[in-house]
Design a protein that fits this description.
The chain has 17 helices and 19 strands. The chain has 452 residues and is an alpha/beta fold. The chain has a nine-stranded parallel beta sheet with strand order 14-13-12-11-10-9-8-7-15. β10, α7 and β11 form a beta-alpha-beta unit. α3 runs parallel beside α4, α3 crosses α17 and α13 crosses α14. The chain is globular and about 65 Å long.
Length: 452
């Protein structure tokens, strides 16, 4: 189906001037301008009192955690204890159906905030896991029409984090992990720059979950098959202390020794990165998924992303897991990024335009989705029509980026992924939210029984 979006207050297409109308043809942006005339067969969307922004690209999520929000035991814990009390306690007890429902919930929250792409760091793998658990994530994304980059996590050793040992999780060995990754690549991965499905090699923790030789094998496999690489790094000081104690070098230097730096690599968090770390990361083109809400919630600190940005590192945004943010909103992350670094470094530290770039075009480039992330003729039509008719926007002068500036709650009038409408008047197209909520309640009661 083709669309003409007309009469917007603004369309955020910086290279195209003062634009109010946008035409979608065969899934792509075909025309940008003013007073565009409808073509035969087009569906007209009246965007009065709306602004049109590029679809937001979430570069780090844990969809399984969508059903682990506000677990009482973890509310006041830091990362190490929280991992044991919340995600590692529950994830061995996930069924494929619960995983599908969790992914549906998380992706629908993301879509309602303006997200159009999700990089899910899926780590629910162990020695005895079946492929159905991963299949459920791919299926949920396909059903909702969102782009999915599945970052295939897991561990080859129990490591030094407390959670795996307490939960009695038996990790995969490296041969099994590589065999399973290859099976997923064959079934799901699309290599082109406009893919709806991509696979990433993503051991859960670079420091704690795999041996150096395993990390090198994973990096070699990824580069042989032109897959990107992702992991957690330097979320808390424990990463650095363990790298120094076990390997006699910094965590970033350890990543370099294991072939885990480069323009095809990005790390979540990097809260504890030093000036020397930033220089090395920037020199190699290694990127970051900045997750400010989760970092605040767990008391981990604030990643030095303004320094990273100035140094030339690719900076993107992620919502992390809802178990440590109680949200899957990319608008929340963009808004908090705008505010947080200004609070620390002054009012010129961040701009609304820069935070929008971090949450859109930068994320798309980091994921290898080079035909998305911005509004330009010939790009895939991944875009969001934000409704500014709500009273909370009354009196706002700088309206083009009002959703980022004002933060949640937002209302999406319409959202598109590769030209397919996925949100209509604030609701995810084709999703029976009441049915999902009802089934989820039953599944969560069963999860609590299994985990206890």
């Amino acid at each position: 189906m083709d669309y003409l979006i007309k009469n917007a207050e603004a369309v955020h297409a910086p290279q195209s001037g003062n634009v109010t109308d946008l035409r979608i043809t065969n899934g792509y942006i075909a025309e940008l301008g003013r007073d565009l005339a409808p073509a035969p067969g087009e569906t007209l969307i009246d965007a009065r009192q709306c602004v049109v922004l590029p679809g937001l690209v979430n570069t780090h999520h844990h969809l399984a955690q969508s059903v682990l929000k506000g677990v009482p035991e973890g509310l006041n814990q830091g990362l190490g204890e929280w991992l044991a009390s919340v995600p590692y306690r529950f994830w061995p007890h996930f069924t494929p159906r619960l995983m599908y429902l969790a992914a549906t919930l998380g992706l629908s929250e993301l879509l309602r905030s303006g997200g159009t792409t999700c990089a899910d760091h899926h780590y629910l793998y162990h020695a005895g896991v079946t492929e159905e658990l991963e299949d459920a994530v791919w299926q949920a994304a396909e059903d909702l029409g969102i782009r999915l980059v599945l970052c295939r996590g897991g561990a080859t050793v129990s490591g030094s984090h407390k959670g795996m040992a307490r939960a009695g999780i038996r990790p995969e060995n490296i041969d099994t992990m590589l065999e399973r990754i290859d099976a997923s690549r064959s079934r799901y991965h699309q290599p082109h720059s406009n893919a709806m499905r991509k696979l990433v090699v993503a051991p859960t923790s670079l420091i704690h979950s795999s041996r150096a030789e395993d990390l090198r094998a994973l990096a070699a496999y990824a580069r042989e098959h032109d897959l990107r690489l992702h992991s957690h790094l330097l979320e808390v000081p424990f990463d650095e202390s363990q790298a120094q104690a076990l390997h006699g070098c910094s965590a970033v230097e350890y990543a370099a020794r294991c072939d885990w730096l480069g323009p095809d690599v990005w790390f979540a968090h990097l809260v504890q990165a030093t000036t020397a770390d930033i220089e090395q990361l920037a020199a190699t083109g290694t990127g970051i998924s900045h997750c400010p809400t989760s970092n605040c919630r767990l008391g981990s600190g604030i990643a030095p992303v303004t320094a990273m940005d100035k140094a030339g590192m690719p900076v993107s945004l992620g919502v992390d897991g809802s178990a440590s943010s109680e949200s899957a909103s990319m608008i929340q992350e963009a808004n908090l990024s705008w505010l947080l670094h200004r609070a620390v470094h002054g009012p010129d530290a961040t701009t609304l335009e820069r935070c929008l770039d971090w949450s859109s075009v930068n994320g798309a480039r980091l994921l290898g989705l080079d035909n998305t992330g911005e509004l330009a003729i010939g790009r895939a039509a991944d875009l969001v029509v934000y409704d500014l008719a709500h009273y909370r926007y009354n009196g706002v002068h700088a309206r083009t980026l009002a959703p980022v500036m004002a933060g949640e709650p937002v209302k999406v009038k319409a959202s598109f992924v590769h030209g397919r409408q996925v949100v209509d008047n604030g609701e995810v197209v084709g999703l029976d939210q009441a049915q999902v909520a009802s089934e989820l309640s039953r599944e969560m009661l069963q999860l609590l029984k299994r985990a206890s």
